[in-house]
């Protein structure tokens, strides 16, 4: 099912040596017939080095089992591969041993190819807002009290404790992701919208992956990818969606 279309371009410049590419982004419901492999790749990208610790097959099948809640972005029609995914899963409903606690937690999964413009994100969240309202009205289990966003973060390696020989080491300063001030803890948001999500959180944390990365010198510079979790109350969801639309137009 096609939802809507957004026009985008890959860049803009007055220089004659820069070419512009116009792209039409179409928004669709998840398609169980064609989206499996692309979803699985996006989930592997999301979980990075820890991807092998999850059953990506089962998680992909679970996402595809609820095609009326969630959005994909494609450029070549419904039967083409998706470039982005946004959905939410009921953690308690799908847990092996559901807890009787009154808190209803939704797990928000949002992942896209790295070159997708952030301007495609707010429409997906607006659509998900409507879909959750419709699902709740139909008696489906999407009346969440809290929402947990899983994403990635980047840690500045120079923020770690230096080795004894680091005083003599002369290396370039680590690059800083665009549109971000250097945080005190040296942890940067991987996706631009994660900065806005953190503004609405009641709790957030980043964590090292369980699987080992390639060994680095203690005084290395650069950025290392980490996992990120952000928890918000559902009452702040609408404010977050509106804020995204204001910032990323």
Automatic annotation (TrEMBL):
PANTHER family cross-referenced by the UniProt entry: BRCA2 AND CDKN1A INTERACTING PROTEIN, BRCA2 AND CDKN1A-INTERACTING PROTEIN
Disordered: annotated segments: 159-188
Family: Belongs to the BCP1 family.
Chain intervals with Basic residues compositional bias: 162-174
Superkingdom as given in the UniProt entry: Eukaryota
Pfam family, one: BCCIP
InterPro entries cross-referenced by the UniProt entry: BCP1_family (IPR025602)
CC annotations in GO: nucleus
UniProt-recorded name of the protein: P21-C-terminal region-binding protein-domain-containing protein
């Amino acid at each position: 099912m096609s939802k809507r279309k957004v026009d985008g371009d890959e860049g803009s410049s007055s220089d004659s040596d820069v070419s512009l590419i116009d792209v039409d982004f179409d928004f669709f419901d998840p398609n169980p017939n064609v989206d499996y492999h692309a979803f699985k790749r996006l989930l592997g990208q999301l979980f990075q080095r820890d991807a092998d610790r999850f059953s990506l097959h089962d998680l992909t099948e679970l996402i595809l089992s609820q095609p009326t809640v969630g959005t994909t972005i494609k450029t070549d029609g419904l039967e083409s591969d998706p470039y982005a995914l946004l959905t939410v899963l009921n953690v308690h409903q799908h847990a092996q041993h559901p807890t009787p606690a009154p808190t209803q937690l939704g797990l928000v999964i949002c992942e896209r190819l790295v070159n997708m413009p952030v301007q495609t994100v707010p429409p997906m969240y607006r659509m998900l807002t409507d879909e959750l309202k419709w699902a709740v009205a139909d008696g489906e289990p999407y009346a969440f009290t809290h929402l947990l966003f899983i994403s990635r973060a980047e840690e500045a390696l120079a923020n770690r404790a230096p080795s004894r020989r680091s005083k003599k080491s002369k290396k370039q300063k680590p690059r800083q992701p665009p549109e971000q001030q250097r945080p005190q803890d040296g942890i940067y948001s991987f996706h631009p919208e994660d900065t806005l999500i953190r503004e609405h959180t009641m709790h957030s944390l980043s964590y090292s992956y369980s699987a080992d990365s390639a060994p680095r010198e203690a005084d290395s510079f650069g950025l290392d990818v980490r996992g990120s979790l952000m928890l918000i109350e559902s009452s702040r969801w609408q404010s977050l969606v509106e804020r995204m639309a204001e910032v990323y137009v």
